[in-house]
């Protein structure tokens, strides 16, 4: 028999796995759709994660710089104390 198909959401047909008149089995994938809303959400999520990682990296670099300056200061203090002995 013939069957009319409709999609639950907007999207574009990316691939059709059957041809007209072909017999199909229950559960067989007939076509693949691209949902632009899902793609947009994924893009937003990736952009958010990228921004978070860049912020974290910047903070870690600042922490490293602070720790290096502190270590240099402590080393200088220890050298001065050693020289005065």
TrEMBL record:
SUPFAM superfamilies: HlyD-like secretion proteins. This is Uncharacterized protein. The lineage of its organism: unclassified sequences, metagenomes, ecological metagenomes.
